[in-house]
Design brief:
The protein is an alpha/beta fold and about 190 residues long. The protein is built from 6 helices and 7 strands, in the order H-E-E-E-H-E-H-E-H-E-H-E-H. The strands form 2 sheets. Strands 5-4-3-6-7 form a 5-stranded parallel β-sheet, sandwiched between helices. Strands 1-2 form a two-stranded antiparallel sheet.
Amino acid sequence: MSDPIATDPIATASTATGSISTGPAAPEPDSTAKPPVRIFLVVVDESPELQLALRYACLRARKSGGKVALLYVIEPGEVQQWLALENLMREEQRAEAEQKLQKLARDVNRLTGTLPALYVREGNRRDEVLALIDEEPSISILVLAAGVEPEGPGPLISYFTNRGLAKMRIPLTIVPGGIGIDALDAIT
């Protein structure tokens, strides 16, 4: 049976002292360096549970000195036969997305005292969530709220708690859709 320390390429035994060396000494921590800011990503949609996810993210950001990021994904339409009509619809959807994000940004500012990062993307919602998380290393937590409808918690939660979990590089926080505002405030 081999010795796990001896086979570790980083750790080597010192024969002279019998001590273990783990490579170069770690640099002294910089006492003036600030810890990285935690960014809570909330996916904006038309679901009623959006307000729960947003409130949770805002309260956690405020208490931890973090920030909130909002992602609105414009999913491709089914009518793509006429380019002019498609472009007009895309412009209208983008204007709606920006209006909704501005309204939510005011809510975030009221709850946290900071302005959120705003993202508008076009494509499949779950693919765009993963792409943004990969592109923005500062995003540290994805916050979603579960639906209370009989068909399940929602497509993003269903995906990210199954096949999509392996693609995540950050934790996923799921806020129960049936939780009340008072209970939510009490746990954050």
